[in-house]
């Protein structure tokens, strides 16, 4: 029987894939959004920054930032789950020295955000659940929270068109 | 809010929002429940690096700001506002290099809720990039 791969090799391959996926999108870099990975589970992390404020009097996060944060988390989580098999098998090589061709991202058809409470001027987290992912379309639900996982500040549902394999 | 002084004041208010200022949003119209905001093309906003098309999230940001401005310009809303719900439909990719202009109309206001519709266009103003519908809070009433 084949011996399992060393844990460092597996982690390194997954992290390289994730950072290539996330690092390829300028807007995600602009927001300062990063992703925590536990196995295949992703959590979007949006560190607080003054430029993300939408209401200076409260102060509160901009509603557009909240929408963008949840949408980016949905797109990256969807893409990640769609590419997972190819990352694991090594069919997709994200080695930066090989100048990898990045896969296309899913395209948003619609995105509906439910603002539950105002976003506080501190870090925010989001996790997406893929409710349905077919060959052409996907439906994703995202939850965003700050201090308490059970007290969501926003949630969203979006529909996406999946990229065609190339 | 048709007179130039009020427009100037509203413009200063919108442009004082840190996130809107950071994205270079400019308010060009704000009167009686209608607002128009333009956001220049910026490489930082790219969502698809292969084509240079800006991210849906950036379109959300300008839509949300514009809808909020429309609510604040409505004569029956006396104070500020906050987004309760916003849905955006993305009809096509925005042309890279072109500014996005959002136009929002606050078409109904109750004691507690303002209903808004908006579209976002690039240079081809007959063919919107995205449309939005939202519900916003109304302040200043009992």
Provide a quick synopsis of the model.
The complex is a heterodimer of chains A (166) and B (142). Helices cover 30% and strands 33% of the residues of chain A.
Question: What this model shows, in words?
Answer:
The complex is a heterodimer of chains A (166) and B (142). Chain A has helices spanning 7-23, 26-31, 63-89; strands at 34-38, 41-46, 53-55, 60-61, 107-115, 124-133, 137-145, 152-161. With 166 residues, chain A is of the alpha+beta class. Chain B has one domain: Roll (Thiol Ester Dehydrase, Chain A), CATH 3.10.129. In chain B, the strands form two sheets. A six-stranded antiparallel beta sheet of chain B has the order 1-2-6-7-8-5. Classes of the chains: A alpha+beta (166), B alpha+beta (142). Chain A binds chain B through residues 24-27, 29-31, 50-57, 60, 62-65, 67-69, 71-72, 102, 104-105, 107-115, 118, and chain B through 16-20, 22, 43-50, 54-58, 60-65, 68, 80, 82-90. β5 (107-115) of chain A pairs antiparallel with β5 (83-90) of chain B.
CATH structural class of chain B:
Alpha Beta
Task: Specify the structural class of chain B.
Answer: alpha+beta
Helix/strand order of chain B, N-terminal first:
HHEEEEHEEEE
Question: Which residue ranges of chain B are poorly predicted, with pLDDT under 50 across at least 5 consecutive positions?
Answer: none
Q: Rg of chain A from C-alpha positions? A: 17 Å
Largest interface: A-B, 38 and 36 residues
Helix fraction of chain B, binned, reads 10-25%
Q: What spatial order of strands do you see in the largest sheet of chain A?
A: 1-2-6-7-8-5
In terms of DSSP E residues, the strand content of chain A is: 25-35%
Number of domains of chain B: 1
Strand content of chain B: 35-45%
- CATH C-level class of chain A is Alpha Beta
The second-level CATH architecture of chain B is Roll
Unreliably modeled segments of chain A:
none
Reported for the largest beta sheet of chain A, the result is: 6 strands, antiparallel
């Amino acid at each position: 029987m084949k011996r399992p791969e060393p844990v460092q090799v597996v982690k390194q391959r997954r992290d390289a894939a994730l950072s290539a996926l996330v690092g390829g999108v300028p807007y995600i870099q602009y927001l300062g959004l990063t992703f925590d990975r536990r196995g295949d589970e992703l959590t979007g992390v949006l560190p607080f920054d003054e430029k993300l404020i939408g209401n200076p009097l409260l102060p509160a996060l901009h509603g557009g930032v909240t929408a963008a944060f949840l949408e980016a988390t949905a797109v990256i989580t969807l893409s990640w789950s769609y590419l997972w098999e190819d990352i694991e098998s090594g069919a997709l090589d994200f080695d930066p020295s090989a100048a990898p061709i990045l896969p296309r991202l899913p395209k948003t058809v619609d995105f509906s955000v439910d603002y539950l409470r105002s976003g506080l001027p501190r870090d925010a987290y989001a996790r997406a659940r893929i409710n349905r992912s077919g060959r052409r379309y996907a439906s994703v639900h995202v939850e965003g929270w700050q201090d308490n996982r059970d007290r969501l500040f926003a949630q969203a549902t979006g529909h996406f068109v999946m990229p065609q394999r190339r | 809010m048709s007179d130039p002084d009020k427009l100037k004041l509203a413009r200063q208010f919108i442009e004082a929002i840190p996130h809107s200022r950071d994205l270079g949003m400019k308010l060009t119209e704000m009167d009686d429940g209608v607002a128009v905001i333009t956001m220049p093309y910026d490489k930082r906003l790219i969502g698809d690096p292969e084509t240079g098309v800006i991210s849906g999230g950036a379109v959300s940001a300008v839509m949300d700001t514009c809808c909020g401005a429309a609510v604040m310009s409505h004569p029956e809303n006396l104070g500020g506002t906050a987004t309760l719900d916003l849905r955006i439909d993305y009809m096509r990719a925005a042309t890279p290099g072109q500014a996005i202009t959002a136009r929002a109309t606050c078409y109904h206001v109750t004691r507690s809720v303002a209903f808004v519709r908006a579209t976002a266009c690039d240079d081809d103003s007959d063919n919107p990039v995205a449309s939005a519908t939202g519900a916003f809070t109304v302040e200043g009433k009992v």
